[in-house]
Amino acid sequence: MKAIRCERGSVVLDERAPAPTAGAGEAVVEPTRLAVNAEDAMAVGAEFSGVLGHEFVGRVVEINAPAGHASHARLMGKRVVGSAHTPCGECERCRSGLALHCAHATVLGIRGRDGCFAQRFTIPAASLVPLPDKLADDQAIFATTVGRVLHAARMLRVEGKTFVSVLGDGPVALLAAQVMARRNASVRLLGTREENMELCTKWGVKHRAQHEVGRRHDQDIVFDCSGTAETASVALGLVRPRGVVVLMRAFGPGASLPVETIVRDEVQVLGSRGCAVAEAVSELAAGRVDVLSLVARRLRFEDGPQAIRAAGEPGMLKILLDAA
Ligand SMILES: [Zn+2]
Questions:
Q1: Which of 142, 224, 237, 271 lies 20 to 30 Å from 73 when distance is taken between CA atoms?
Q2: pTM of the full predicted structure?
């Protein structure tokens, strides 16, 4: 079968990859739609070795469900999306409900596990979420990105007139702006790329160039979706005393946050990296978020290596691969 692999920092289309079989508790999925984004390009930079890819829509073609796991067996033949994060399921954290923070977790196509850029791939059945028929592949493929935002939003209290600023203009920022606007907040997106920010107009969300906005310490909630030390510092200039800053991405080593502001203004700084996939499927099926506007390009599966290079370009929205 065909697979897109990373070997020693270079990306290749492997036409003779071995077809996988499902281990205990796993499913084999045949993808129909794949998405390529900056994390895939970063996995190449980090010299991940194996099949790339972590965002997919596909059909379950084989399942190895241990006895007593009827819910897994019922996934056979179903159209699904799934979470890329695979906890071990056995450690202390996994057993105490903190599977997201499992120290032994692998991540599809990013850490310790082959990804989904292949004609078939394996994934734990527990990571899969079945899709309603009415939800098209092109929308369902956004489930993990929408899920990232919904997971973060669950940590926040939005009461009365809440002022929210979203820093960034990539897919996560554009979805965070939409999701928070639907929670009755007054939302503005502060980005650097006019062509991306312009999308906010059709959702009725205000947008401004980041450098034009004063740091007035008057926002209740600030999402930093850019993940640089500079934007984290901008976020702390925007947030009001006792407000909340949500960091959606980590920034590189050596950078630091203005701790003095955090202490003086009693700011809550929340890290967020979880993903509410099932909730995202419901949100997408109900048509509550526009994701189709975030598709930048559509390419054939065979163009995957080129797509991964393009995904690393600044400001790139979602690149979809047709895997069917
Ligand atoms: Zn674990």
A1: 142
A2: 0.95
